[in-house]
User: Fold these one by one.
Assistant:
Number 1:
Amino acid sequence: MPEAKLPMWALAGLGATQIVGYGTLYYCISILVPDIARDLAVSEPWVFGAFSVALLVGAFAAPTSGKLADRWGAGRVMAVGSIGSAATLVLTALAPGAWTFAVALALMQIVSAGVLYSTAFTAIVQAGGRKAQTSIVHLTLIAGFASSLFWPLTTWLHAMMSWREVLLLYAALHVVACLPIHWALARLTSGAVTVARLTDLPVEAAVAHRNGSLVFLFMLLGFAIEGYALSAMLVHIVPLTQALGLGATGLLVASLFGPAQVASRLINLVFGSGLSQVWLAVIAAVLMPIGIVVLLATTPSFAGAVVFAILMGLGSGLTSIVGGTLPLELFGRLGYGSRLGWSTSAKQVTSGLAPFAMSMSMAGIGVPISLWVVTAAGLAGAAAFALIALLQTHAFRQVAG
């Protein structure tokens, strides 16, 4: 593919649309749930359950979105996704009953695959040339502020209007703010899909193709396991720290996760340029298990819980980076969107199942043993990524021999 450089406006614009996308299609829901439940005459757990099912359904749309991005250009897919996001937000806001709300919510998560990280990363790779890896790190750093901005914004808006009016306002935001950026981005990415030169593949990708199917399988496995472990911990971080004797300070411990996540992206941006993304994936995967071991070994120590939250945040931040950079390093730019779609789908499916599984686990075998199970899962994910590194080493030796 022709060498290119991602313009600053495109990176800044993508950062803005990712903040809006995650803020309006994901983070705002938890703030609006009580009002939604009252209005639709259902319980709050029912609304959360509908949202979990919607996330699972949406996960299966990621591979299709990736294939379309490879074929049409990611910018075009994101432009269509902006329209779809606005339309499904309107449908959700106008839903007359609980089941129509659930269907609209599922449709919203399906179209979200066209505007969130996986497609945005593909746009960067198509338009950003060999600097794409750095631009992906920049994007995750910007988009990391989505929850920090949209939780208080949604709370403020909801104090003045109903949940339906909030969603209608957010629908308008996709048309007014996101659509023009994605449409402009389409001009940068559409040309990239017309040329596919195998010489554009980096050396690492050429070697990886010697064990391509196996490498891809281990990558999917690693992302799926890490998605499960991280989701299981994030949803239950406050109740499980309280169950371990930290009491009200569990909320304070949980609040450290976000800043640590952003810090990990800054650290990687400054110091991680020369590190293989496979080994970065291994490091990201082992940080949370180490944090859990510290938590279990020191509980109910507040200091130990702080170390746990920071390590988990660091691991999560790095995981979001390697989710985009690892497929690029292993397989190059050709077919990147499709591969990223499959890895995103694998991660989202297990992430959607994890909260329920962790809840059942804590109720059945207790918090400490459940945490050891998550620790084992995290280490298994790290092992999957480490096996990729071993396969690469073996392949390089065969080439050299």
Number 2:
Amino acid sequence: MEFSKYLKEYPDKDGKFGSYGGAYLPEQLVPAMKDIEQAYLTICHSSQFINELRRIRKEFQGRPTPVYHCERLSRMIGNCQIYLKREDLNHSGAHKLNHCMGEGLLAKFMGKHRIIAETGAGQHGVALATAAAFFGLECTIYMGEVDIAKQAPNVARMKVLGANVVPVSRGLKTLKEAVDAAFEDYLENYEDTIYCIGSAVGPHPFPMMVRDFQSVVGVEAREQFQEMMGFLPDVVTACVGGGSNSIGMFVPFLNDPVEIVGVEPLGRGEKMGDHAASMTYGSKGVMHGFDSIMLKDENGEPAPVYSIASGLDYPSVGPEHAFLREVGRVKYDVATDEEAVDAFFKLSRYEGIIPALESSHAVAYAMRRAKEMNTGSILVNLSGRGDKDLDYVIEKYGFGEKYKDFK
């Protein structure tokens, strides 16, 4: 497949990436989504909007974020060199602000005064609360009670920023249920509200919008790595839950001779309910207004999922990821909880960088792959910092005594 015109061809006019994507909506939301699509297609061609977004990224977000060589970690593994795209240094501590500031600008353009969202790990919630404070908008964040308990620092940050954090107590009390609750709010309040979906999922035009806003990550990383090294990396990798950080990292490399790998959470193992590896164990299905690959139970409903990383425990994946795997351009692998925690402590000890547990899955894959490759280079999107995870990790794993010696 030719990728030189990829961004012009996908998604198509129906919001489809091949057979994935689209918009499966209650009738009353169809006009609202059309309005969002039309507004986005208008402002994304506006020099005023683009210049304002560039100013925000530079002056408020602190972009560009750097590419960093993990010299000590690489040396401990062997001869293959690991590099990080440092999205943990983006303002608010993760990649999420890249699309939240864009969605905030869109809300202002459309005359909305309220933005709502779901959040799992809390990074999207913090980013949207940050955007709401910046633009002077009301903000409501839905978050599962399990994730609220695991991510207390981010809950506090959202509240300090002025957001209304609504606990969700139904079902597994995690990310899927938070999305359900946010959709219900949007159904009732779409006239004055925009639902700012937290990943490259949901009905069209959200997967397209989030991809476009997040592509700044891959564009920067590609230019920075080539300037640093004079060539491109052998492997580009990122963690995949819904898939926002990874799609933003991957798309600018699609037409290059590099291997691209998404890393899903295998959690405790292959048994249903013990992981959230949708691409690895799922099948085609519609959920939350879009068609993609999803994990299903025996009744064909969304299966229970689990991951140590709250931002990855979602039973589906962005439709563009499903398409890129189908056409053979992107591969998908897995990392377990244990591998992610090992990478969490190794990166902390050998490079002085405490990663988010979500990002630790990609670091774990890079460490494993570096041993196999022995030479070459791997570029990892370090999508977020691990401050939010410290209390949970310390409670469950102590201060990493068992990871003191390199394995």
Number 3:
Amino acid sequence: MLAVGPNGVGKTNLLESLHVATQGFSPRTRTDAQLISFGSTASRVAVRGTRAASPIEIEVVLQSAAAKQAKVNGAALRTAEQLRSETATLVFTPDRLGVIKGAPVARRAYFDRVLGRLSPARASLPAEYGAAIAQRNAALRLRSAALSTWTQQVAELGSQLVAARKETLSLLSPPFAERAGELGLSEAELRYAGEPPTVEALEARLDRDLERGHTGLGPHLDDIVVSSGPRDLRAYGSQGEQRLAVLALLLGEAELIADRRGFAPLLLLDDVLSELDPSRRAILAARVSRAGQTLITATDPSLLPAEPDQLVEVTRGSAR
């Protein structure tokens, strides 16, 4: 599907609404009040389609004075965020370049979400490790007797998280490298920079941690290097190469989700064509045509070098 219209008419809002409906949250903000129209107290998004050949209907309701609610095939979910275990949606927006050129925290967060999408049973592991780090940091500041207990927890959960991240990268690396090469980014590679924390290593730096009041070792400080040949794309990649790397990550993950979960994810690509040359637009168009359902936004239909299955014209306040 191609959604076209001038800048500022609401194409990104359409894409955002689909992300909210299928994932329970916005890719732009975690403040739900920003998703409700000015002067209104609630908003509703409903979608209908198929998942692995079975019909699915989803409804998400946001209210300014209450928690958001979600239903799948009429059954209420405990939280709207549970939609992530029901459906898979991958999104590209211009600010996604921060995954490559941003600080390590942006890459950790991104790849932890990839971990959760590829292995839903381990989706809570980053949060569990984060809670253990918070408890250990509190024990450090208080010089609490519980410090050794939380050191053990940080070592155990941290080792599990590092192993899960490395496994995720080993799964993602081959399709990422293949899609990147297809787009003209040669020798693309993902590499994990960090080692599992151990009790011994944490205790060896205990004096420094006590002095600073926080844990200075563990996967909460690790990084993922995205490179092309010998070049770390964060420091030495052009903006064009960084864009290609993000697209390759998304396309590679889409293939893995389809293989591992039995259904292709919904792809949402916002303003992705304008910064690509014609040859790469053609490559992208051919690839997404085989990747399940995709929504692409653009200012002009001529930017897509293929005939879309559906063309939606967006004007202010309507789409048809």
Number 4:
Amino acid sequence: MKYNIKSIDDLSIEEVKHKRALIRVDFNVPIQNGKVINDLRIRSSISTINKLLELETKIILISHLGRPKGKRNPEFSLKPVYEELKKLLPKTNIYFIETIEELKNKSNQIQPKEIILFENIRFYEGEEKNDLEFAKQLAECGDFYVNDAFGSAHRAHASTEGVARFLKPAVAGYLIKKEIDYLSKAISNPEHPYIAIIGGAKISGKIDVIENLLKITDKLLIGGAMMFTFYRAMGYSTGKSLVEEDKIELAKHLLEKGKNKIILPVDCVVSNEFDPKIMKHGALKEVSFDSIPEDGIGLDIGSKTIEKFKQELQNAKLVVWNGPMGVFEIPETAKGTIEIAKYLAEITKKGCITIIGGGDSASAIEQAGLQNSVSHVSTGGGASLEFLEGKELPGIVILDKK
């Protein structure tokens, strides 16, 4: 899918100066005890905000947080984000507005180079329904539209797709532009050798990605719990490991289709109980893929697999990684994921383009402290997955074409 869309760099001074920029951002960040605990998504939008401040626009920021299902719920308030934003932009007047009526009034009163952060857009039922009357109300609060929320670009909601029908120009911010530039490298005329690493628990969420990547990659390395569904498809016993019984036939079909491309782990780390306390006391062991014990639960790729995957990756020109290699949330079973992350940082230094496809892989890269050592870490889990599947993203397709 090729996106030839306009970005904020394509706007003229006349189109933006002293005008109201309605910007859809992705401030769906983790919050604990009323505090933002990871501000990556907020920081990712700052370059777009700063550019529009320089151009003397009035800025209205729209975002969702969590899934309040169309009802006001203080647990999902963007107030903690507002506090964080004030720290990131200390010299800027920022207002927090809670209702759409207040937003209409305040958007007509603010001065150039001031910002409004609107309360969680998903407090309104019209948002997720992409209600066009609601989208029109939003459009009244701006003079032009900027979508910079890649993490929500695969959703046709009122603030991601509907509003762009009524507010023109409608363009991409720098974050979306960067996401498209990098993810396009993985889909259109990619460099070779091109290797994809696909992990995570289930094949079911990654079928379309695997199918699409099999057409364009040279090798596809499989990790995470989905490896056990593939093992079963090959007739091996998998103990008590997670297997999608209803996807075994599909795994057979994928193995057939990717006969010389799909590379499965040769060993894995197992424990007889999924309990971090027990794992700490040496209950983890590495076994060959064809000798998983009856009471064994597979939790990570083994050290032989780590070495095998590194060999496959060493000459790559392009690598896309989506999904962890094991249960990376627990230190004892994070080794496979962390080692692959470190190796990707190594080959990036040699000029390989490394693209991390959002979600858990992005968390894993951050956990390893390597987010600045790879080419690109996507901010959108579901959106990057759909992009790699070759699907059109409604929040991007709707934007003005160049």
